[in-house]
Amino acid sequence: MNKPLVGALLSVLLLGAGVAPAAASTATDATTRTDTATAARTDAATRTDTAEVRAKAVTFAGTVALSNCSGSVVRVPSAQPGDPALVLSNGHCLETGFPAPGQVVLNKASTRSFTLLNAAGSGVGTLRASKIAYGTMTDTDVSLYQLARTYAQIESSYGIKALELSAAHPVKGTAITVASGYWKRTYSCAVDGFAYRLKEGAWTWKDSVRYTSACQTIGGTSGSPVIDDATGKVVAVNNTGNEDGQRCTDNNPCEVDENGTVTVRKGINYAQQTYGIVPCVGTGSQIDLNRAGCALPKP
After folding, report:
1. How far is Cα 90 from Cα 69, in angstroms, rounded to an integer?
2. In which region does residue 154 sit, left (phi positive, over 0), alpha (psi from -120 to 50) or beta (all else)?
3. Which end of the chain is more exposed for a tag (fewer CB within 10 A), N or C?
């Protein structure tokens, strides 16, 4: 898990290139270049407009910053305004440390605080947990905190609604945005595919989301919601990436297929699907691992 880092160093690479065009030999050539340049400017303007539309589709509203990670206030489709709100992050972001393989944390008291962000990425208030409702790094890498305030109270105080968890399995090719409350930064790419098993050190996760290379998430982005650009719903939670090209080691997860074949993808990052959480959340935001359809690991 290379994402729950405090004080990670960021570097900005500025690229610039200039190429002097060859001199025009004829008026026709000059006209052709002028038309081409005009078309290029039009295409560039179109791309800019498209990028602006996409940027406006996903904001930071509802995301939170943890002391070492990112997260978001989330709700299942059946949640009621008076239900205690839930915060989604990673299991490896728990203040109690990494859960061991096979370990499940359930209904453990917690007073952890979260900084709630508005659409622009500004902190607007502090939310506090009443307990760790669920946490594990087995099969998935997820934590759910139950807050001391309800969805209605948060919306009334800050005008911010919780992000909804999608109840459907994400689809390859879907345009997504990873929204980090820790860094107040977004990463846009697409679902490249799914890893049957993703193995990192002692932990193994099932059916993990693999990003296309454009999502170069960094330390501190752990726990960020992965949002479907088209629906605005959360489809996964960001959790790791292969940093050095090593095979199945800490900070260097590898993919293992149904036949046991191992694939290493240096520089590629991953998330854990969240649709499987939905059947496990019952009345009053209570985690009930015995509900129909719930397949999250049990203690």
Report:
1. 8
2. alpha
3. C
pLDDT reported for residue 235: 98
CATH architecture of the domain covering 168-275: Beta Barrel (2.40)
Helix or strand (DSSP H, E) at 32: helix 27-57
Q: Residue 143 CB: number of other CB atoms within 10 A?
A: 29
DSSP 284: G
**Dihedrals phi, psi of 245, to nearest 5 degrees:** 85, 5
Sketch the domain layout of the chain as residue ranges.
63-165+277-285, 168-275
What would the pLDDT profile of 82-136 be if each residue is shown by its tens digit? 999 999 999 999 999 999 999 999 999 999 999 999 999 999 999 999 999 999 9
Count Cα atoms within 13 angstroms, Cβ side, for 193: 9
Q: What Rg do the C-alpha atoms of the chain give, in angstroms?
A: 22
d(CA 1, CA 60): 23
Report in angstroms the alpha-carbon separations of 201 from 56, 69, 183, 252: 38, 20, 26, 8
Contact 178, 187 (CB under 8 A): yes
**pTM of structure:** 0.83
Domain 63-165+277-285 classification at class level? mainly beta
Domain 63-165+277-285 matches domain 168-275 at the CATH topology level: yes
- What pLDDT digit, counting tens, does each position of 221-267 carry? 999 999 999 999 999 999 999 999 999 999 999 999 999 999 999 99
